[in-house]
Please model this.
Amino acid sequence: MNRQWLSSLFIVAAVTAAIPAALTTAQTGGSGSSKPPQTTKAPAAKASPTAKAWTPTKTPWGDPDLQGVWNDATSTPLQRPGTRAGADVLTDEEAGRFQEELAYDLSRDRRDGGAQVDVNRAYNEHWMDARRLKITSDHRTSLIVDPADGRLPPTVPLSPERQKTRAERAAAAARFNAGMPNNPEELSLPVRCIIRTDSPPYLPTIYNNDFQIFQSPGYVVIAPEMIHSARIIPMDGRPHIGKTLHQWLGDTRGRWEGNSLVIETTNFRTDDGVVYQGANPETYKITERFTRVAADTVNYEFTISDPTTWTKPWTAVIPWTKIDPEQMYEYMCHEDNFDIVHLLSGARTREKSAAAQEGKR
Model:
């Protein structure tokens, strides 16, 4: 088994670990590729339909009804691409071109770029969520709505402790990609099947973009399709757990503001990778709002505040579309339930082999 093949195996095995990173890459740089070939066809961007009057529905006990299975897939990038700077909302014609460019950039069926690039694309489009190739119906150029430029705020300088942590994490990732992890903890949280896209904020990704919302008197439950968690959110006004207690998905408390569900989450674990883009779990806070604006649409809005990571809070809005018929299948995460033994034993074998070769010199 040669190193190039083994490295490729690790990349494929860790593809879901790279989902948030891939999303960030696609959505920070925006559509930077050359014009797609004429043979590449993306779904036509449709003009937003005229809004119709809709009466919000209620649960039997009188709360706004958010129940159902919802999908948040879209190709609209988190951050506004430089090619669309100054353009908040596009015309129908502009939106069509934008959608086609993004669909080309995101396609896993492309074979350009050489063998390694092709391997990094991993699964082909058969496994992807086709809805991720369409921009939002309002033709926005970014999911971020604040700041007004559609970009993340500038970051603040990292403390020496956080710089050290990031350097250690980067070194561990490099060892993993080279097939030489030292221990299980060096594998990322997604590869270890601990958390993935179930940690807020909920951002669209390559697949498994569904969420099921359940409600009962005094509680709301949000169950993401990917991985195995469910956020059980009390609505009775109880305080957060103690500041010294930390959880993988944080501690969430909810309330109703008119027809909107507002939830605030703090108390995240301090492990690297628990919160978005390596922010500081000690100072990170996310506020999410779920507002049903039509029978088939919920607007998901979130604001992230972390003064030790960004210079100001920032907000994004993502439309969730109702899935009909409602069906969400169980997601099983097995990458390192089985392969962690192979990954670690293989690394030790390669160490011994390298040492033996060195001894022959």
The first strand starts at residue 68 and ends at 71.
